[in-house]
Amino acid sequence: MPFTMSGRARKIAFGALAALALIPLAAPDHHANLQISLERAGDVAPQRLEAAFHLGLVAVSVLVTWSKRLTT
After folding, report:
1. Are residues 67 and 42 in contact, defined by beta-carbon separation less than 8 angstroms?
2. Rounded to whole angstroms, how far apart are CA atoms 40 and 44?
3. How far is the C-alpha of 55 from the C-alpha of 52, rounded, in Å?
4. 63: Cβ contacts below 8 Å, ≥ 6 apart
5. Residue 48: pLDDT band with limits 50, 70, 90
6. Whole-angstrom Cα distance, residue 2 to residue 29?
């Protein structure tokens, strides 16, 4: 016996899905930041890699820093 939904249940499900689809648009800032620091505290010129991805409504920036010499 296949699963069937009544008309009212179908409208409620559609409304809930529509509300879930609008949640990302309601966020005030569509930007995610990721920072990874592997640098020594005394390093005055750590190596650095930055990248930014903009995918329409969502932007992601990545920052990775490290020291050339991780040994003492």
Report:
1. no
2. 9
3. 10
4. 33, 34, 35, 36, 48, 49, 50
5. confident
6. 43
Altogether, the residues listed in the chain come to a count of 72
- Cβ atoms < 10 Å from Cβ of 64: 16
Q: Kindly report, residue by residue over 21-40, the tens digit of the pLDDT.
A: 777 666 666 667 777 777 77
pTM metric for this prediction: 0.43
Tokens 């650095």 found at:
48
Per-residue b or e along 17-48, where b marks 16 or more CB atoms closer than 10 Å to that residue's CB = eeeeeeeeeeeeeeeeeeeeeebeeeeeeeee
